[in-house]
Amino acid sequence: TQGSISAPLVAQGRGMEPGSSPLTTHVLDTASGLPAQGLCLRLSRLEDHGQQWTELRKSYTDPDGRCPGLLLPGQMKVGIYKLSFDTEGYWQKRGQESFYPYVE
Question: Which residues form the Transthyretin/hydroxyisourate hydrolase domain (predicted)?
Fold first, then answer.
């Protein structure tokens, strides 16, 4: 690959005002040193006693590489979640090959 994407799943101090999502992500294109705008991601939760992933939301990163509003306040419940990042699609749009087709 000609770059990689850092995709930490963290609660940022910014954007945690009442009414905002309790879950945030910030994706950076380290090849360019810029936020990864337009990267498709999917939020899923493990259901059925650990047997099946249920997709909760599909979204795209904004110009700052963030994806606000993944979950509405009150939607987050105890469980196992994952974010799947379509890195292959992101790099294809830029005319480059991806070493990893996705990152979870």
Answer: 23-104
